[in-house]
């Protein structure tokens, strides 16, 4: 993987690019993560496809550009970044918050997509309860109590049965919280609160869609996930039976197989 900074329009973007492969897969990380979260997953992909990862603005070492990073701004930044890398088409994979960005990308730049994969993510907007939880997180961060997020958020992403064996991954994610700028956390929380319902767009898009969902996800309970899948009969779905919200870490081989099978069945060769 070649690591570099590129200009995505006016925004400096930190990216890693395997630079080899006819088909391209772009991996978008979730909230309180960075491109580092994919390090153990990439080796399952890069021999078969070109893999690109990036730090979304406000996370990792990409820049913060304001008090609210809307999903539309992030999607347009990703599109500009891919164009700067010479990528005309890709399969876009969004984990959790990255899925919200991927949905906005699908709405705004469908001509660039061979396929869309929502990895433990949803087209639903925030419930009022969820939005209120995010506002509380903003207040914590602005009060200088970011460490309270680090104590809870990383472990909660994993199915309870996996937390002992995934202790190193939880430690890595905890460290990531500490190195994420406070302004970036607030900007992305505001953006997630503001995001719109994408169910209608998803039903109408011509882009092939795959949901990869964990049966033991604490953030998207299985009954919510099952209703979401039922509402989108046009989409494919793969269930990870032993995963929480972090399926690509909890069941990496099954996640990679689902992803690569989908890539093989959809889209065109990337130029």
Written overview of the protein:
The protein starts with a strand and ends in a 6-residue tail after the last helix. The protein has an 8-stranded mixed sheet with strand order 1-2-4-3-5-6-7-8, sandwiched between helices. The protein has helices spanning 71-84, 97-108, 128-142, 146-156, 167-179, 182-194, 199-204, 222-230, 247-250, 252-265, and strands spanning 2-8, 11-17, 24-28, 50-54, 90-95, 113-119, 209-214, 236-240. With 271 residues, it is α/β, with parallel strands linked by helices. It has 10 helices and 8 strands. Helix 1 packs across helix 2, helix 3 (128-142) runs antiparallel to helix 6 and helix 4 runs antiparallel to helix 5 (167-179). The mean pLDDT is 95. The chain is globular and about 45 Å long. It has a single domain (2-265), classed as Rossmann fold. It is 41% helix and 18% strand.
Index terms:
alpha/beta, Rossmann fold, 8-stranded mixed beta sheet, 10 helices, 18% strand
Can I get a quick summary?
The chain is α/β, with parallel strands linked by helices. It has helices at 71-84, 97-108, 128-142, 146-156, 167-179, 182-194, 199-204, 222-230, 247-250, 252-265, and strands spanning 2-8, 11-17, 24-28, 50-54, 90-95, 113-119, 209-214, 236-240. The chain is built from ten helices and eight strands.
Annotate the secondary structure layout.
Layout: E1 2-8, E2 11-17, E3 24-28, E4 50-54, H1 71-84, E5 90-95, H2 97-108, E6 113-119, H3 128-142, H4 146-156, H5 167-179, H6 182-194, H7 199-204, E7 209-214, H8 222-230, E8 236-240, H9 247-250, H10 252-265
Parallel strand pairs: 3-4, 3-5, 5-6, 6-7, 7-8
Antiparallel strand pairs: 1-2, 2-4
Helix pairs in contact: 1-2, 3-6, 4-5
């Amino acid at each position: 993987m070649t690591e570099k900074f590129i200009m995505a329009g006016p925004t400096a973007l930190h990216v890693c690019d395997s630079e080899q492969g006819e088909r391209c897969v772009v991996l978008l990380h979730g909230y309180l993560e960075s491109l580092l979260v994919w390090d153990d997953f990439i080796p399952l992909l890069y021999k078969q496809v070109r893999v690109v990862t990036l730090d979304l603005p406000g996370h990792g070492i990409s820049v913060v550009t304001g008090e609210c990073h809307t999903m539309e701004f992030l999607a347009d930044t990703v599109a500009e970044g891919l164009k700067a890398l010479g990528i005309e088409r890709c399969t876009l994979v969004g984990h959790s918050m990255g899925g919200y960005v991927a949905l906005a990308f699908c709405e705004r730049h469908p001509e660039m997509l061979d396929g869309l994969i929502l990895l433990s993510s949803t087209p639903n907007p925030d419930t009022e309860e969820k939005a209120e939880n995010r506002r509380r997180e903003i207040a914590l961060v602005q009060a200088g109590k970011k460490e309270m997020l680090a104590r809870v958020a990383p472990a909660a992403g994993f199915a309870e049965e996996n937390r002992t064996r995934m202790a190193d991954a939880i430690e890595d994610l905890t460290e990531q919280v500490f190195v994420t700028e406070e302004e970036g956390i607030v900007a992305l929380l505001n953006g997630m609160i503001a995001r719109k319902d994408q169910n209608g767009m998803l039903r109408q898009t011509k882009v092939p869609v795959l949901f990869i969902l964990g049966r033991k996800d604490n953030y998207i309970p299985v009954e919510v996930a099952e209703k979401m899948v039922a509402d989108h009969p046009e989409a494919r779905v793969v269930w990870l039976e032993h995963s929480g919200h972090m399926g690509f870490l909890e069941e990496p081989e099954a996640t990679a197989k689902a992803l690569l099978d989908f890539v093989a069945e959809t889209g065109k060769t990337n130029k």
